[in-house]
Fold each of these.
Amino acid sequence: MTIHTDIDSIRLSGPSGREALGGLRQSADFRRLKLLQSPTDFCNQMFLLLGRNLAVATSMLPPAKRQEGIITFLCCRVLDAHEDLHADGATSARNILAAMEYLTGKIATPPPAPVYEGQRETDRLEALLADRLPWLRQALEALPRAQQERVTKLLTAIAVEMANDRARERFGGQGNLAEY
């Protein structure tokens, strides 16, 4: 699956570029997002909504690096959903690890998406992304093997640190900041 962001074709200079960049700050249409049937369209829209200005920078990367970056970013946002949207640290830690294990192919069944969707739009977007985990796994599995391995290694390291912090009822740990 190749994710082509709408930002790929945006000219960043002139009035149309400014309008396009302004569009990165529009509110999400959750009804429309929930109705999307294409994993590619869903991942594309989620990246534009969650990545915002990062989508502009990512558009400047070579296509292969862009794909890897987009998928890595979305996978990390799923981990963040499980970190932020569960009531207790133990549940959060368990689901962070389960999401990582599902995305990396270690387990066959995804963890349930967080029930609490948060107050902020970004929390609600992350909860929706967590609910569509099979689509994100499909995108990860479509990457070339070397890219899958890089994403898997990074995702595993981040998930372990996040889970350890949440199990201790901490957020944004200082354990291994270089990896985190």
Amino acid sequence: MSFEIIHFRGADKILKKKSMISDVAMTMEYIYDSLDGSLYRGELLRCALDDMGWRENGTLNILDGRRYMYKGFKHGVAIDGSFSAYEFIIEGLARLQIGFDKGNIEAGILMLTAKRSEKSPYGSTVDMVKSEIELLYPTISLPVSVALFNLGEPDLYMGEDKNGISVQENDNSGIEKAVSG
């Protein structure tokens, strides 16, 4: 599965009321398609959210006069996240909670990587998210949907031996042999 969305505290009802259930699902699918196997995910994520209408100018700010920004915003729903570490869950929820407490957003969507250490004693990522959301209440009380992504490793072509020539950094002899026949 490419991604999984888990709703907490009535976030699904808010998205349904705003007729955004399919919009959110299509956006998450587009993000997955754009980022799976990619190396530079930040710019690709911004482009994907922009393509799907989530990067409205001036609405991304978390705090007025500061550079803290959500990844996306649409119809009172903010998107934030990180695909580099699951532990962003705390920071991401705090950022969304600030917008909720200030009345700037009605719900949030937090995008996270589902990948964790194989040695983790905490069970599945879904179970861990459910547990942590409950443990953080009442500090984190906003309606939130958590999207867990299983993004593939970046496709790196340097040094691959599949259908090409592996070339060391300072060794051009492999290229010379291939060119000469």
Amino acid sequence: MLLFINAEATNTKENTVRSLMKDATEVSTGWVTASGLEVNLDSLQDYCAAEQTSIFHTLPESITDDDTFAFFAHHIFYEVWIDGNFIYEEEVPEHFFYNKGPGHCWCFIDLDEEYAGKQIEIRYICGYPEQTGYLSDVYVGNERGITLKMISERFVPLVASLFLLFLGVIFVVADFPINIG
């Protein structure tokens, strides 16, 4: 009886993880400029000048209040607008001696059900002229599902990195008593 309950609980957990990951829809294609030209998100620098530029995409027709719009930004300052309404802006802290530039960061924006089927606009400007600015891993869906999808896609490198970190710590600890004496 306990084996059956354990197997059923495990099956339910696996189904929950699968259903959450199915809710995360990648929307890295289908982006266009204001003039209707298709945009390759990996090379936004091709479309990016010293002034602010916009790219557009239509959100899915089925959005719930639990859904999130997520993307990974590389070397760009950005704002997010939905049907002309301002939604989100990257926070850029001011420093006394220098301004912090845009690096690499994940952006998670909560969506409302009313945004379904509307046009999302990302207004951006590249942070550095010598760097290529771009977006990657653009998703719409449940935030937990997006996070699980990202982890599962990067699971092998994550495990390898943790293993190498563990080995490094072991070698430093093992070498420490030898160099003291």
Amino acid sequence: MDNRKFLKQAALLPVCVATLSAAGLAHSGEVLFSSTLDDLSGFETTGMVRPDNPGARLLGGWLFDGRLQTSPINVAGYRQLELTYDRSVTGLESHEAGVAAYSVDGGPFVPLERVAEGGGEVSLAIDDLPEGATSLSLLFEIDASNFFERFTISRVELQGTPDDTDPGDPGDPGDPGDPGDPG
């Protein structure tokens, strides 16, 4: 490969990275829910869930896998939601996982991520909200066989973009002075 051609392609790399980064920020919006999990208020816990520093540690177990669920979060009037959270996974086998999921208006939970290793911040898009959705609950759980296996959550944030597709009041044709009044 000609060096000039390589340098031109290499020069485009920062532009591509910046474009991809900006695309990732397209979901940024208003914060609908945020918790550092310093305490577990705002969450329902079942199974083996322990406070950690920082966050909460979900432990596996034959009968008592840890589960951490938010109270319903108001999402009425929002679209393009994005869940961002910090996580670490320890000791899981390939068939086990830490799971992040969501439920709309009390319906079944829809998995966003199943992870068996790794850690750090992750952002996941929730783009498929049904029209008229009013609430969303987040769920974090571990599917593991013993309490030495852990899924640790240390920060959770849900953002949403206000839904500006509402055309507003089309007006009452019989109401003079109404912007929707044709006459």
